[in-house]
Amino acid sequence: MTNSIEAVGEKLAEILTSYLKNNWADSPSSNKTITAATNMVTELQLDSFQVMEFMLEVEDHYDIAIDLDSLSNIHTITDLAAVVIDHQD
After folding, report:
1. Per-residue model confidence as pLDDT tens digits over 47-82
2. DSSP letter for each residue of 34-51
3. Helix (H/G/I), strand (E/B), else coil: 5
4. Among 84, 82, 80, residue whose Cα is nearest residue 65
5. Which tens digits make up the pLDDT trace of 11-41?
6. What gap in Å lies between CA 14 and CA 12, rounded to an integer?
7. Number of domains in the chain
8. Which CATH number covers residue 71?
9. Please, which residues bridge with residue 39 across strands?
10. Which pTM does this prediction carry?
């Protein structure tokens, strides 16, 4: 399956927006506009539990498994998109 980083990034931004609105509606992050350039830690201030829950949703959506080594280098949605594409190949 071939996807561009931009297309995957847009989809991941949609998934993260939905995840935050459905699971963390009281969080200030749930009302922020999320783009491919959004930094999940510094801009959204997601804690490790939220990041892991979101990663599970991403893994389920794309039917992939993202290893912990890859997670340590992910800061933005674009970073995550590159990892998703890499794991699909």
Report:
1. 888 888 999 999 999 999 998 888 888 889 999 999
2. --TT-BTTTTT---HHHH
3. helix
4. 84
5. 999 999 998 888 877 776 767 888 888 988 8
6. 5
7. 1
8. 1.10.1200.10
9. 76
10. 0.85
